[in-house]
Design brief:
The protein has about 1150 residues and is α/β, with parallel strands linked by helices. Helices cover about 45% and strands about 15% of the residues. Helix 10 crosses helix 12, helix 15 packs across helix 19 and helix 37 packs across helix 39. The relative contact order is 0.05.
């Protein structure tokens, strides 16, 4: 609506956007759009206790020609009742007031967070003259006093505020549809008159339009865990809290025109201008009298000299190579100094080199920074950029000035140590991490809205799963409605689902929570609050983050440094420690000194034996390794660059492999390009190759070539047309054939979108190579470190355990007398011969239900008193506060006491007695010890009376403790029987035209929604391999009783080659549980009994399962002193082959005397 000339001007000073998080669904573009539509010249954002959205609001408002006002609806501590804080609205009139606001909010979050609320204290507000304070209306301290009838107290408080904020304190009036609004307004007007204070009209905006009220209430219920229909729910908002236009506000306050005028007057007083996009680096300390520029040059040259000794140990060769390196170094230094970034390089090299010198593993590089020789010389990266044709201009382009950005990988366990060093160096008030804003995605919003509408979980879960999951390209509700017919059909035909989705749509994408950026660390030149306010999650005051996200902190002038945690560096760190510990000749082992031409390492890669090898673990990558068969480091670099959707789908990968193996001709297009394209057999794989071709053929500078690369990536036709002319004219000037130039430009344009950053690929290829080398020469040390890094993920431990066995590395079980907390190599017959170990001991920390403190208590008791002699000795000596009964039970199930007593069932049975005896011994500590009489020996008879678990029970219990079957495989319990039906192990399955029989234990069932409806995927495991089987929903529903985890499943299905994954695709035609297999295929149930067997026992076992129609015949093998015969019982004694029958029969006759006979 456009205001008429007669409408009084109005400015909104109070608005909650989506960044209030717990309430508010107004999006910033919508707020600005409405203000512009209403002809309002200014607007304030005043989110609840934060400035999360301020920079976004500021930029959007300035772009729309509206004055942005920075404000905050702040909580104010109430000393009389800490559960009921007051509210006050603070607005920044100038830059100094804005800095005050940032400091106040930071202090509230870091020093005075109460029950999830960051509260200001009244005394903090004294002397903040630049801030304008609005009383908070009915929620303020003055308003609360008026509501309670304490008029004198209200006047006293108002005068105190007025004294602290001369000409800057206003009594706030609101008419927003709440009961009691009018009574408050009249009382407030009387108070203002008595005290001589100005009044101002505000409207508490929570959403944009009246129709948004229900969606806003749903948002509040999601945040509070409430239900929308709950009649007892506290209603804190009204349907009138939309954004009214100026005429609406004029109607509401026609009787108080000064309140409207004062809103405009306050807006005129608020004149805050920010300088955005100008990065401010912290000052790096240099020696006295040495400038930043000179210090960078000095350190770079000193570092280059050290690097050259490592790269070229031969002095003559070093002297020949030095001019090229020196020329490149000088060029880079001039560029860095000319662009004003020496401080950035010095800061990064400082914390990286501190990390390296203090035992923190640091990655060799990441991203385009590996292309800088200065970075290599300073120790920021560890890969020679000249040797691998890595380009500095790809990282820092003098023709396009922007901040450099080093992504630095640190060992995950030690990353915090480096951040702590930075805090100590630059000051804790200058360093923080960066906030991220989590949003309500389509899947989450459907579940959340369904919950607040009290719809069944199964309905919400089904709807959520129908929305395709693609993190790289998330699906919205609208997109799902358009492209998923089943989802659309439910929306169109089911009224409840229609209502749910309609309510969810306005909430989708709203800010839901505040997180922490994975690696970004801010270092400010002074106090951070001079640039942005700070926030910390309630209860985690040490984890301070900016209130602005990554883009906004950079706009505010702060520089982000990326401290990324890379798990594989932690693995390498532990592996190197183990190598040094178990190999006397490798006490100074250094991964960076490894030769990059080791044939055995390339043989491992070519065989795709790459489980646990960095970046090369996936099934698709293993298939590519087999076809490529890399034999140089450049091949590994190319491998990482090629294994992405673009190159895989474009045919580049097939072309690369065929050229490498001589099945296709290698074409370099022109002899001048052979040095550029030789390592990739003429295929344009890297962005750097595009840049070098542009330089060599088109006459571009490398900076210009980087601009061309960027233009090609954006695919803007008008930009490409300009560059085509420049390229062809440059080629003509250099004497190249115009047709060649046109052809090359077309090729570059085609492959630029697929081209990868070689600097990043080369740096990560180095880690891939190092992990592969360790797996070849030190598999026990490497795999122990790998298991250690994933100790909490039993699925991954199982994968690495299988891989260890396949690589001839033994894994010993957990043992209370031998294991430490961690997985670790142990001395064996190989170390006795001076070779690396081939044995790993399972760490007690890998047993579910233990925990580090419990394991440390066990180790402490072992070290203090020697090896444990039995369960009772163990319970008597460990600290039972740290090692509770649940922990001991888990250790028993895991087999950690097997070396003391192999009967796990008996140990569990005796555990209560052991703990009781230990407690009794403690009570009798001043008497002769209870254990002097060898209690362990006394209970041997008790242990012997408990029969051991059968294989199935033992392994099932073991899985609860370890997450998988370690000492055997559950399939072994039925292997001999089932192999008569499905003889082929899963590891030997092969594609076939006809149906095949396959079997295993059901490890997992997962549901996926496809265009053909619901599909189930069953993971079968027979000990030789695991394979996923697709099952249509109809078949699943028909046999769902058979699909139980940890039970055997026999499948008749079809096996074919899967072109997408390179593996096998298996789909089920028929499913058979064990009972169905037996009843359909067994000839008889054969029981071996003694000749003097009485009929009573037999009838007692068989009678419950007799079924003349559906059963299997029963045969008795009678064994007497002088005879043996086979007797078949009559047809009316046929039995159903229920597992309970088999178990009862075996308990009665013993396992070996019960046979399921298949003929």
């Amino acid at each position: 609506m456009t205001t008429s000339p007669d409408t009084p001007l109005f400015v909104h000073l109070r608005s909650h956007s989506e960044f209030s998080v717990v309430d508010g669904i107004a999006r910033i573009p919508d707020l600005i759009g409405r203000a512009r539509e209403f002809g309002q010249p200014a607007m304030a954002i005043s989110d609840l206790a934060n400035l999360f959205g301020w920079i976004k609001f500021y930029k959007a408002a300035r772009k729309a020609g509206i004055k942005p006002i920075a404000g905050c609806d702040a909580w104010l501590h109430n000393p009389a009742d800490e559960d009921k804080p007051f509210r006050v609205l603070l607005l920044a009139s100038c830059h100094a007031a804005y800095l005050d606001l940032c400091e106040l909010l930071s202090r509230a979050w870091t020093e005075n967070s109460q029950r999830g609320r960051a509260e200001l204290r009244r005394e903090w507000l004294s002397g903040r003259n630049g801030l304008i304070a609005l009383s908070g209306a009915r929620a303020g301290d003055v308003g609360q006093a008026l509501e309670a009838g304490r008029d004198d107290e209200a006047r006293r408080l108002a005068r105190q505020w007025a004294a602290d904020f001369p000409d800057g304190y206003f009594i706030e009036l609101q008419r927003a549809g709440f009961d009691g609004d009018e009574a408050y307004v009249q009382a407030a007007l009387r108070l203002a008159a008595d005290c001589g204070l100005p009044v101002v009209a505000t409207h508490p905006i929570q959403f944009i339009a009246p129709s948004d009220f229900r969606a806003h209430e749903a948002r509040v219920c999601i945040a509070e865990g409430e239900l929308l229909g709950n009649p007892r729910r506290v209603r804190r908002f009204t349907a009138e809290q939309y954004m009214p236009d100026s005429a609406d506000m004029a109607r509401r306050f026609a009787d108080v025109p000064s309140a409207l005028a004062n809103a405009v007057q306050i807006a005129r007083r608020c004149n805050l201008t920010l300088t955005l996009g100008e990065p401010q680096l912290p000052l790096f300390p240099t020696p006295d009298g040495v400038s930043l520029d000179d210090y960078l040059v000095q350190l770079a040259n000193e570092g280059l000299a050290r690097r050259m000794v490592q790269l070229y140990p031969d002095p003559d060769e070093r002297a020949r190579q030095m001019p090229a390196y020196q020329e490149r170094l000088d060029l880079e230094c001039r560029t860095i100094i000319g662009m004003g970034f020496p401080g950035y390089f010095l800061i990064v090299q400082d914390f990286i080199n501190w990390g390296k010198s203090h035992g923190v593993p640091v990655g060799p590089g990441r991203g385009s920074g590996a292309g800088s020789l200065v970075a290599f010389s300073l120790g920021i990266t560890d890969l020679d950029p000249l040797r691998y044709d890595l380009l500095f201009e790809r990282f820092l382009n003098p023709e396009r000035v922007s901040m450099p950005d080093f992504d630095v990988d640190f060992c995950q366990d030690n990353r915090e140590r480096v951040i702590e060093y930075v805090k100590e160096k630059y000051g804790r008030d200058a360093v923080s991490q960066i906030a991220t804003f989590g949003t309500l995605g389509a899947k989450a919003v459907v579940r959340d809205v369904g919950r607040v509408l009290e719809m069944p979980y199964s309905v919400c879960d089904r709807l959520s799963k129908m929305i395709p999951f693609n993190p790289a390209d998330p699906w919205s509700l609208d997109r799902t409605l358009e492209h998923e017919p089943a989802f659309r059909e439910l929306y169109d035909t089911d009224e409840e689902i229609h209502a749910l989705i309609d309510l969810a749509r306005p909430l989708e994408g709203l800010t839901r929570n505040i997180g922490m950026h994975a690696g970004g660390v801010l270092i400010a030149p002074g106090k951070l609050t001079d640039f942005c306010p700070l926030y910390c999650q309630p209860g985690s005051e040490s984890s301070v983050v900016s209130q602005f996200d990554k883009d906004d902190v950079e706009a505010a002038g702060l520089v982000k440094f990326d401290f990324l945690g890379l798990r594989n560096l932690t693995i390498l760190d532990w592996a190197v420690r183990y190598v040094r510990e178990f190999n006397p000749d490798k006490r100074d082992f250094d991964l960076m000194a490894l030769p990059l031409d080791d044939q055995a390492t390339y043989d491992l890669l070519s065989a795709a034996n790459t489980t646990a090898v960095f970046q090369l673990e996936s099934r698709g990558m293993k298939e590519l390794l087999k076809s490529m068969r890399p034999n140089t480091f450049e091949d590994v670099v190319a491998l990482l660059a090629l294994f992405r959707p673009g190159p895989l789908e474009s045919g580049m990968v097939v072309d690369f492999v065929n050229r490498k193996h001589g099945r296709a001709e290698v074409d370099y297009f022109h002899p001048d390009l052979e040095p550029v394209l030789k390592s990739t057999y003429g295929v344009i794989v890297y962005q750097e190759q595009v840049m070098l071709i542009s330089q060599i053929i088109g006459g571009y500078s490398l900076g210009g070539a980087d601009l061309l690369r960027r233009a090609m990536g954006k695919k803007k036709p008008e930009e490409m047309a300009k560059h085509r002319v420049i390229f062809q004219e440059g080629a003509a000037r250099k004497g190249y054939d115009p047709e060649l130039a046109a052809h090359l430009f077309d090729l570059m344009e085609k492959f630029a979108g697929y081209g990868f950053n070689k600097s990043h690929s080369a740096a990560y290829a180095l880690i891939s190579y190092q992990t592969a080398w360790l797996k070849v020469y030190h598999p026990a040390e490497f795999l122990a470190a790998t298991m250690l890094s994933d100790m909490d993920d039993t699925d991954k431990i199982q994968v690495f355990w299988r891989d260890a066995l396949e690589n001839d590395v033994a894994v010993l079980p957990p043992d209370v007398n031998e294991s430490g907390y961690r997985f670790a190599p142990v001395a064996d017959e190989h170390t006795a011969r001076g070779r690396p170990p081939r044995t790993i001991r399972y760490g007690l920390g890998g047993v579910k239900g233990t925990g580090q403190s419990a394991v440390e208590a066990i180790i402490a008791a072992r070290e203090a008193g020697g090896r444990f002699t039995g369960l009772f000795d163990f319970c008597a000596r460990v600290d039972r506060h740290a090692v509770n009964r649940r922990t001991i039970e888990a250790l028993i199930r895991a087999g950690a006491f097997d070396s003391l007593e192999p009967n796990r069932a008996a140990l569990l049975e005796a555990l209560g007695s052991a703990i009781e005896a230990a407690e009794q011994a403690e009570r009798n500590a001043n008497q002769v010890s209870l254990f002097d009489d060898d209690t362990d020996a006394l209970v041997a008879d008790e242990l012997a009376r408990v029969p051991p678990w059968d294989l199935e029970t033992r392994l099932t219990e073991e899985k609860t403790a370890l997450g998988f079957y370690f000492s055997g495989h559950l399939f072994d319990a039925w292997r001999d029987e089932i192999r008569r039906i499905a003889p082929t192990p899963l590891a030997r399955l092969a594609p076939s035209r006809g149906p095949q029989w396959l079997a295993g234990v059901l490890a997992e069932v997962r549901v996926r929604m496809t265009r053909r409806g619901k599909m189930l995927y069953a993971l079968l495991d027979d000990g030789s391999a695991q394979i996923e089987v697709a099952i249509f929903n109809e078949l699943y529903e028909q046999h769902r009783q058979s699909l139980k985890e940890d039970r055997p499943l026999v499948i008749q299905g079809r096996v074919s080659h899967d072109d997408y994954s390179g593996g096998l695709r298996v789909s089920a035609d028929e499913l058979y549980g064990l009972q169905r297999v037996r009843e359909g295929r067994a000839r008889s149930l054969r029981l071996s009994v003694s000749g003097d067997l009485g009929p009573g026992g037999l009838e007692g076992v068989l009678a419950p399962w007799r079924s003349a129609e559906a059963g299997v015949p029963v045969e008795l093998r009678l064994n007497g002193a002088r005879f043996s015969c086979l007797l078949r019982l009559g047809e009316d004694w046929r039995v159903r082959m229920d597992e309970t029958l088999i178990a009862d029969a075996r308990q009665w006759l013993s396992h070996d005397n019960v046979e399921i006979h298949y003929g």
